[in-house]
Request: fold
Amino acid sequence: MPRGKMLRAGVRCICLLLLTGCAATGAMPNEMPAPTREPGLVLAASHYPVYLAALQIVSDMPEIRLSCFLQPQGGYLEDYRLSGPDWARAQGADILLMAGGGLEEFIPAFTAEDGKPLIVAAEHVVRLPGRILDPDEDTLPAENPYIWLSPGRWASMVDGIAAGLTQIDPERQAAYVAANDAAQAQIQAFGNAFATRMQPYAGRPVIVMHPALAYLAEDANLTTVLTIERDPGILPTAVDIAELEALIAPYPDAILLLESDAPLALRTLGGHKAALLTPLCLGVQNNDPATWQHTMEQNIQTLIDALSPS
Reply:
C-alpha cells in the first residue's frame, strides 16, 4: 500500500480512539504522584515492541523523550495488570502509545480519563488466531496480538504511530512524515529481502511454541502444522514435557520455533530440531532505531540454519 494511503488509514484509526469516549471496564490502580516533568514532548509506550516502533519515527528528534511505562515482564503480555508505578509513569507523559488488538487490556482505564492523548497504533491490523483464553468455555480463540515479527504488520504499526503523532502534534508534521517515509521504505526493502531469502524453504513444516513466532512463520511462507499454547513465563514440569512430546510426535520432520530463552528441556523436545528466535517482547531501551531490523536479521539467519540440512 502506498505510504500516503497507509498514513491516512492510520489517522482514521487514531481519530476513532481519541474522539470516542469509552467507559472504564475495571478498577483503576491506586494513583501515585506523577514524576517531575522536564521540557519537551514526552511519549510513553506500553510494551517494548511499541517503544521500538515509535523509535523509528522519533529517534532523530532530540526534543522528544520516549520510554516504556510498563515494567518488563515475561509470559503473556496481554495478561499484564497495571500497577500503581505503571500508572504514575504513564501520567508523566504527554502522549501514550499502545499497540491494541488485545495486547493492553487496561486501555479502557486510560480512555476514560480526560485530556491524555492516546495512540493505539495497530488496532485494526489483521491478526492470526491466538490462544483460547478460557479452556473451560466453548469459545473461539482470541486474536494473536504479537504482530511485530511480520514486516508488513510492523510497517502498519509504525505508520499508525506516525499518523497519530501527526494529528496530535501538527507542528512537527513534516518531521513525522519524513521519518515515516524513510521507515516504510526501509521496512519494505527488508520485507522483500526476507521473502527472497526464505523462498527455498517455502512449505517446510514448523511447530510454533511462542505466539510471536506464528507471524514470522507465516511471512516466511512456512507451514505451521501445530501451534502449542504455553505460557513463556512458566517452566514446564515433567508431566508437561511428556504431554508436549506426545503432541509433536506425529510431526517428526517439523522444526520447533522457540523463544531464545526457552527452557533447556524444550530445546531438545522429542529429538526435534529447534530454532531459538528472539520474539522482541522484552529488551533494553537503547535508543537504536535499527534494533527491530537487526533482531529480524538474526532471526532469519537462525531460521535458515535450522531449516538447512545438518
